[in-house]
Amino acid sequence: MLKTVTLKEIERIFVVTDQMGISREALVIPLRTEHPGRVGILKDGKLEIVVERDGDFAEWLKSLEEQIRARMNPAED
Fold first, then answer.
1. 26 lies in some domain
2. Helix residue ranges per DSSP H, 1-77
3. Does the N-terminal or the C-terminal CB of the chain have fewer CB atoms within 10 Å?
4. Do residues 32 and 5 make contact, with C-beta atoms less than 8 angstroms apart?
5. What is the pLDDT of residue 74?
6. Number of structural domains the chain divides into
7. pTM
8. What pairs with residue 47 in β-bridges?
């Protein structure tokens, strides 16, 4: 169980978002984890990435790009 997000996890999230061409300035990554984790778009247009608390971080990270794409392109669902 991951209770807080550290720089280690944030750097791994940045690997995914950097490859997608998403500016780090456009991201909000709360340091507190939640169950379920989620990806959402805030009122100011920033992408919020809330890390999953109960599952394996590496497994959750594998689905992050898909979660981001689904949120950014909802018409494709």
1. yes
2. 7-19, 57-62, 64-72
3. C
4. yes
5. 74
6. 1
7. 0.92
8. 27, 41
Q: Is 55 inside a domain boundary? A: yes
Contact 63, 13 (CB under 8 A): no
* Assigned token pair, 36: 């379920």
User: How far from chain centre, in Å, is Cα 58?
Assistant: 12
Do you know the residue count of the chain? 77
Which tokens sit at 47?
């992408």
Residue 47 vs residues 14, 31, 60, 75: alpha-carbon distances, Å: 12, 15, 17, 17
Quote the CA–CA distance of 38 and 48 in Å, as a whole number. 8
Amino acid at 62: K
In a domain, residue 66? The reply is yes
* 2 occurs within a structural domain: no
Whether 48 and 42 have beta carbons less than 8 Å apart is answered as: yes
Task: Specify the pLDDT at position 43.
Answer: 97
